[in-house]
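Sample intake sheet
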Amino acid sequence: MKNLKVFSILFFLCFSPSIFAQQEEKMESEFNSVFQSLSTGYFTGTLNGVLFLKNSRNIEVILDFQGTNSFLSIEKEDEEVYDKSYKNYKGTTTSGKTSIEYSTYASANALKIKTDEDEFEVSTIDGACDTSINGMDFYYKSEKDVEYLVLNVRKPIVLDNYNFLIMNEANSQKWEKIKREKGKTITLLPKSVLVFAIKR
């Protein structure tokens, strides 16, 4: 029954883009998850969906998620500047070769896609943490035992590997050189959709 509900959500998102266009201004600007008020916690679930990407060579790649394991890790924010915790949703593709991480903090969010060789990211978790990723809609639907987090991409979103490249480089003067020589981007394409089903 749960798989049927997830399939219904995916079908609705993939084949009803005009509905999202009409409701764009009404999307939630805050993360109204049942887990939002928690400071710590660890919850398991599944991940379904498909991501359409253009890689650094401008070749389209499809990442599929067919009931793979996922989890939500809630990590306490010691200073509680804008929020009491980070909510990190993680999962892998059906093949297990690529992992994904979606995080929220205050009114900001971030998305990471990790391969064996690289890590690409787009994030608004910085500064005031008062904006979310442009081009990605999100919403939550809850049942007694499960909460569904739906991520829907409505326009191209660029992710880069800059943070991954400079993570272990202490000399900030080298950062621009590293980005120029080894920097890469990928583009997340419209109609990509993910559904995290997390057990409460």
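Comment: Residues 11-29 have pLDDT under 50 and may be disordered. The longest helix spans residues 2-15.
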